[in-house]
Specification:
Elements: E1 6-8, E2 15-17, E3 21-23, E4 31-35, H1 36-64, H2 66-79, H3 81-96
Antiparallel strand pairs: 1-2, 3-4
Helix pairs in contact: 1-2, 2-3
Bound molecules: zinc ion.
The site of zinc ion has 8 residues, from strand 4 and helix 1.
């Protein structure tokens, strides 16, 4: 039985070559339902929507594990001296926006 060579993207509703879809072993035809372009866009959107959530999660984590923060910061901030400033600026801004 020959496999179909095109697949309809769930997101943009376009028929595209199966080559335009990422592999997904778990799915029936071995490809994701979204084409690569849409998958990238969805991932970007997801990251955008979850960045704050992720930041909060990390803040909580470091609040509960301050020794890890200082350990990690020491090394990281030595290489990225400006990040420190930006990070706390962002944290303050997020807090005020509530
Ligand atoms: Zn698509």
């Amino acid at each position: 039985m020959e496999k179909p060579k095109t697949k309809n993207c769930k997101t943009c509703r376009q028929d595209k070559s199966v080559e335009d879809f990422h592999n997904q072993k778990a799915s029936k035809d071995g490809r994701q339902n979204n084409c690569k372009k849409c998958a990238n866009q969805l991932r970007r959107d997801w990251a955008k929507n979850n960045r704050e959530k992720e930041n909060n999660r990390m803040r909580e984590y470091y609040k509960n594990n301050p020794e890890k923060l200082s350990e990690k910061n020491k090394k990281y901030f030595e290489k990225n001296p400006n990040y420190h400033k930006d990070y706390y600026h962002r944290v303050r801004k997020n807090k005020n926006s509530h």
